[in-house]
Amino acid sequence: MTANKVAVVTGGARGIGLAAVDIFLSKGYDVVVVDMSYAVANDLAQARGGVLPIECDVSDPDAVSAMAETIARQYGRVDALVNNAGIASLHPIQETDFHTWKKIMSVNLDGAFLVTQALTPLMKEVAGAIVNVASIAGLRASTLRTAYGTSKAAVIHLTKQQAMELGAYGIRANCVAPGPVETELLAKLVEAAPEMKASYLETIPLNRFGQEKEIAEVIAFLCSSEAGYVTGQTIAVDGGFQAAGVGLTALRSAQ
Ligand SMILES: NC(=O)c1ccc[n+]([C@@H]2O[C@H](COP(=O)([O-])OP(=O)(O)OC[C@H]3O[C@@H](n4cnc5c(N)ncnc54)[C@H](O)[C@@H]3O)[C@@H](O)[C@H]2O)c1
C-alpha cells in the first residue's frame, strides 16, 4: 500500500470534479481521475503530476471493476472517493423518453452505486470517506427535471444507505447538493432553457451562481478529518436556494 493518501474523483477532467482534483493535490493526495474523456484527463495528468487518469464509464460495471483493479494494484488504498460524474438534460415529463430516463439514471445513480461498491474494499483499509455529488434538483422539484432531479434525489438516499452500512468500517458517506455553477453541464442546460438563469437568480438569496471551487471546498472538507463525525448528511452549497421561500424579488426592488 502506498504511504500517500489517495483520492478518486469521477468526472474529474473538468468542472466541479477538476476543482476537487486541484484541492486534493494541494493537500498532498495522489489523485485518480476517472472519466470518459481520457484525452482531457491525460492532459491534466501531464500538466499537474500526481494524477493517474483512468478512462472509465461509471455506468459500465465491467469498466468499473477494471478501474478498481488498477487502483488496487497501483495504490492499494482509497482515502477519499468523490462520485461526481453526472449528466443532465431538460425535458417535460411527457417528452422524457425512456432512453433518456435510463441514461441519466445509469450515469448519475448506477455510477455512484457501482464505483462505491467496487472501491469499498480499498476504503476499508484506511476508513475512507465518500462524497456523492447530488444537486439542488434532488432536494427541490423544478420543471423539466423529472429524470435528473429524481436521479439526484436517489443519490441523496443512496448516501444514507452507504453511511448506514459502511460506518461499521469507519467509512463515512456524505453528499453535496450544488446550486447552479457555471460549468459546461450548466451551459448546455441554459442553452436549452435560456430563461433558467434569471429564474435561478430570482430564488437565490446570494443573487449569484456558485463557483466550482466553492463546491470543491465543501467536498474536501467532508473528506477531511475535520468532518470525522459527519456521516449520512447532505449539504446544499447553493447560495441559500434551498432555504428560500417567496419574497426575494419584492425585497430587492424595495432596496
Ligand atoms: N454545474 C452545475 O450547475 C451543477 C449543479 C448541481 C449539481 N451538479 C453536479 O455536479 C457534478 C459535476 O457537474 P459539472 O457541472 O462539473 O459537469 P461537467 O459536464 O462540466 O463535467 C462532468 C464530467 O463528468 C464526466 N462524465 C460524464 N459522464 C461520465 C461517465 N458516464 N463516466 C465517467 N465520467 C463521466 C465528463 O466527461 C466530465 O469530465 C454532476 O454530478 C452534476 O450533476 C452540477
Automatic annotation (TrEMBL):
Taxonomic lineage: Bacteria, Pseudomonadati, Pseudomonadota, Gammaproteobacteria, Oceanospirillales
Protein name as catalogued: SDR family oxidoreductase
InterPro entries found in the cross-reference section: NAD(P)-bd_dom_sf, Sc_DH/Rdtase_CS, SDR, SDR_fam
Domain of life per record: Bacteria
Organism in which the protein naturally occurs: Halomonas dongshanensis
PROSITE patterns: ADH_SHORT
Matches recorded under CDD domains: SDR_c (cd05233)
Family named by the database record: Belongs to the short-chain dehydrogenases/reductases (SDR) family.
